[in-house]
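Incident log, structure service

09:12 report received: a user says their structure output differs between two submissions of the same chain.
09:20 pulled the input from the user's history:
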Amino acid sequence: MTGSDNGAVAIGIDFGTLSGRAVVASVADGRELASAEHVYEHGAIEEALPGSGVRLPRSWALQSPQDWVDVLKNAVPAALAAAGVSADQVIGVATDFTACTILPTTADGTPLCELDEYRDRPHAWPKLWKHHAAQGQADRINAVAAERGESWLPRYGGKISSEWAYAKGLQLLEEDPELYARADRWIEAADWIIWQLCGEETRNSCTAGYKGIVQDGERPSREYLAALNPGFADFNAKMEHPLSALGDKAGELTAQAAEWTGLNAGTVIAVGNVDAHVTAASAKAVGPGQMVAIMGTSTCHVVNGEELKEAQGMCGVVRDGITKGLWGYEAGQSGVGDIFAWFTKNGVPASYTEAAAERGISIHEYLTELAADQPVGAHGLVALDWHSGNRSVLVDHALHGAVLGLGLQTRPEEIYRALVEATAFGTRMIVETLVKAGVPIDEFVAAGGLLKNKWLMQTYADVLRMPITVLTSEQGPALGSAIHAAVAAGAYPDIHAASAAMGKVERNAYVPDQARADAYDRLYAVYEELHDHFGRGGSRALHTLNEIAVEAGK
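09:34 re-ran on a clean worker, output below:
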């Protein structure tokens, strides 16, 4: 089969933080024939467990596996029907997931939270990517690795995140050892959903490398794990499995999964992937030097390089992690859209909400209108974008956000603008850190829900001093998955060919304004000063505040 075969389609399924989306795309040219979304019944579980009502501690974030299966049962049939194509036309299915979203299961893949005796145990549930309650374990993982001179640590910028597999696994052991012992498998949701689709456990090279500390084919040693905690020595056994390359075939759709989705049993299922990394294919950015920023509730930055470089605070550099034959670099910001949503929920007076409603626009659109015409720096503010901690380049989720320069004259739209600018500054910090480490970044490609805000995107172009190419698909991860499905099904020889044919971008959609860029340089210098002061040891004020809050909440 070739990519030009008429009528052939691929399905990409994107499992996000609050919902899952399915896209039906033409294999020939990537046209999106239809899409459908299924909102998770339980969403992000951050306050109490479903059913039992057991309260969750600070910084916890969980999900329900049933929500993911419901996406298969609802979004896929709906997208197929809306596209007006038959199951016979579907040559392949691929999925992507937030990561590290990880769960404990039995040997056959049953989530522990679905066993009656464990439903009211928080650690039995999948830990969502933004579960940050394992920061203490992450700190020890990093300290012990540094003391021992573990060779893999520099590949992660010198720090392993509390969001990743080992920190969350160590937290499980130390806070619920019975459940740790009961968990035969510790598996990324990206791999678990493939298990449900094709009936076979697989492990993808992307999550294994970036979130599971697999470097040069090896995981951290038993001796290192025992140094963390003697009971942790055999942790690797819960994850050990041959790794599969991105774009490879994982298996074929089972009869049960065919009943869920309305597809034919035997349909090709591709190896699982991560939402950010898979988007590189839909953004036509699978070559070196093309940074893709997937901008939504959080932002993940991925870029390929031809050479191995070690950059401070990166989420990892992994051979073949994004595109076969290249070194894939990942960085990210734990909160972006989440920060804006927090402010509109908690920091905006009722009069603003009412004014927006009268206009028939969202509060975000209203605040944007008010903020957009203000000269750069006129608000006298600089914010730190750490409301969900700092993923890159500090890798410290004990940090929290701040807004400096507030006065009695400060208005809500000015704070909103400062928060938007802060997230752009955070992205610039990541770009500059990579470039200084020797990783070329020649093009900045933006994707995700925040593209809808044109003023925000222009602000990023001005702050970065770079033109911004935009992904024109509103379902970038799902389309990226569909592109990988086409490769797994044999429609294209590799991801380069499939991306060229099926990807959707507008080059240089935003170009920096020289005057605004100059003005933002001054603000960025202040941001950089505060970033290093509060984040690199000049002051422990934000850490101390977090410690006080944690202790007070116990």
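09:41 both user submissions now match this output. Likely a transient worker issue. Closing.
09:42 reviewer note: The first strand starts at residue 9 and ends at 15. The mean pLDDT is 96.
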